[in-house]
Amino acid sequence: MPRTIMKVRATKVLAIVALASISLMGVVGAVAKSQPLAAADPTGCQPTASTPVPQPTQAMLDAAGLGDLPLAPDPERRDLVAAPFSDPTAVTNPLFPISQLDSAILNGHVDGKVFHTETTLLPFTKIIEWTPGQCVRVLVSQYMAFLDGSLQETAIDLYAQADDGSVWYLGETVSDYKVNGLVLTTEGTWQAGLDGPFAMIMPSDPQVGDVNRAENLPGNSFEEVHVTKVNQTFNGPSGPVSGGMVALEIHQDAAPSDKLFAPGYGEFRSTDGPDVEAMALASPTDSLTGGVPAELMTISDGADRLFGSPLATRLEWRRADARAHRMLDAWIAFRAGDVPPRLVRPTNVALRNLTAQVEARRRSKTRDASIDVAYASNDLQLRYRPVIEVDTMRFDLWVRRALLDATAGSLGGTRSDVVTLEWLRDRIAQSLDPVTLVRLDTLVGEMGGAVVDGDLTAAAHAGRELREVMSGLT
User: Fold this and answer.
1) Could you tell me if 354 and 372 are in contact, meaning their C-beta atoms sit under 8 angstroms apart?
2) Model pTM?
3) Rounded to whole angstroms, how far apart are CA atoms 28 and 340?
4) pLDDT value for 12
5) How far apart are CA 290 and CA 120, in angstroms?
6) pLDDT reported for residue 273
7) How far apart are CA 407 and CA 364, in angstroms?
8) How far is the first Cα of the chain from the last one, in angstroms, to the nearest whole number?
9) β-strands 81-82, 103-110 pairing
10) Neighbouring C-beta atoms of residue 461, cutoff 10 Å
């Protein structure tokens, strides 16, 4: 997932993308033709074999404006030949454990705004023919980034591990969004075998001085990684994490920057000037037994009740005020224990805002703040609950957001919410019975259609029906 905070602001030249894709596929074909082919299986795939990885030429680098980058000479590269892929979806590389990382939360700030990302391993695989005759079954990981509370980017990332323990990146499908939910661009999308070669995202047993290209399509996506430190210890969500790695990344669209990788987490921390994105919590790496603590349940239940309250009378507001302070007291008690450090501030901010809105008797803003508090509590509960339960609650919370935005007359906000729901749906679909899934899909579709028609009354109606569906799931 090489995008991190740098990819958020990346811009690319589409003409060069097309040129690079065509040229690289020519290289792919030339290398494929030079390889003797064994008898194909019914899918057209050959027995997996050690295969040279096509590389862009210097002329292609120059055409993309990358000719002056301080790139490593070939003897330092670890990614010029791909080992066979006998069991590609069993990823055991500790520094990029994507098959063992069901869900992760990273957070930080970009351009002074709150930045929050979620990655989820989806419950299916794909087969990619990355060069003629050579096929790899890949894991599929969903990436979602939120900037200042709105969906900013989504991606579907494809990964596989070779027999030598190296992990390879076989493409991504990217969508960047405006605040109003409209697609801004799909630049950076690529797939191995269609647009160019795949790329090594993590060597096996990396050592200082090793170099690999995590993305290798000049003009579209290009990133060279230089290992500068190994056996490092980082402060993680559950305490010190040993065996970490520091790499210097050279990008096509940003200044060189350091990225940290840690066992059990993979990509751990990225910086770009003052901007930061860092690991906040991962499952199952940080999972604990014993069920959800009572304090977190107090916070979640309180948020649910505040969202559902009419907040129309003095008595209801007094009860809301008392409930908000009980939630704050529960958080103070919980915070005194073992809490992932990077989740403390978002929860502090959410609860302070909630109490302020209740005290000011702002009905709509109180409900909005209750969603933020519930989301913060739900993130913390990833440590104690199955990922599917956490994602189901996330879906419900975005239904609430869509309902609020539709009621408030925010067409762009509702559109962004519906797009978010469409992506979250893929995380929970496999847990739903067929009838419930059809009902959920129908209502999300109705909300989307209402947004297209500019009919926010109809969107709100579908949102209320969708909440009824979710009430039986959360």
Assistant:
1) yes
2) 0.90
3) 45
4) 33
5) 23
6) 84
7) 10
8) 30
9) unpaired
10) 17
Q: How does pLDDT run across 14-69, given as a tens digit for each residue?
A: 332 332 332 333 333 333 333 333 344 555 788 889 999 999 999 999 999 999 99
Residue that is written with structure tokens 């970490």 in the block: 244
**CA-closest candidate to residue 12, choices 277, 287, 300, 219:** 219
- Tell me the β-bridge partners of 223: 215, 251
Question: Taking a C-beta distance cutoff of 8 angstroms, is the pair 369, 354 a contact?
Answer: yes
Q: Which ranges of the chain have pLDDT less than 50?
A: 4, 6-40
CA distance 255 to 185: 22
- Nearest Cα neighbor of 214 from 204, 205, 226, 206 is 226
Residue in this structure with the two tokens 């669209």, named with its chain if needed: 253
CA distance 387 to 375: 14
Q: What is the pLDDT of residue 1?
A: 58
For the purposes of burial, counting CB atoms within 10 Å of the CB of 93, is it exposed (0-12), middle (13-18) or buried (19 or more)?
buried
How many residues in the chain? 474
Strands 190-191 and 150-161, sheet pairing = unpaired
Specify which residues 200 forms β-bridges with.
Answer: 168
The Cα–Cα gap between 212 and 102 comes to: 25
Buried b (16+ CB within 10 A) or exposed e, 354-368: bbebbeeeebebbbb
Give Cβ neighbours of residue 109 (< 8 Å, ≥ 6 apart): 115, 274, 275, 276
pLDDT in tens, 142-171: 999 999 999 999 999 999 999 999 999 999
CB atoms within 10 A of CB 205: 13
Torsion of CA 333, 334, 339, 341, to 10 degrees: -50
What DSSP string runs through 52-121? EPP---HHHHHHTT-TTS-PPPGGGBS-SEEPP-SSTT----TTS-GGG--EEEEEEEETTEEEEEEEEE
From the CB of residue 159, how many other CB atoms can be counted at a distance below 10 Å?
27
Q: Do 278 and 269 contact (CB within 8 A), yes or no?
A: yes
DSSP string, 202-244: E-SS--TT-EEEEEEETTTEEEEEEEEEEEEEEEETTEEEEEE
Is there a contact between 383 and 295 (Cβ–Cβ < 8 Å)?
Answer: no
Six token digits for residue 146? 């939120």
3-state secondary structure of 193: coil
**Whole-number Å distance between alpha carbons of 420 and 461:** 18
**DSSP letter string, 379-400:** HHHTTTS-HHHHHHHHHHHHHH
- H or E stretch covering 320: helix 314-335
**Number of DSSP helices (H) and strands (E) in the chain, helices first:** 11, 16
Is residue 127 within 8 Å of 38, Cβ to Cβ?
A: no
How far is Cα 122 from Cα 134, in angstroms, rounded to an integer? 24
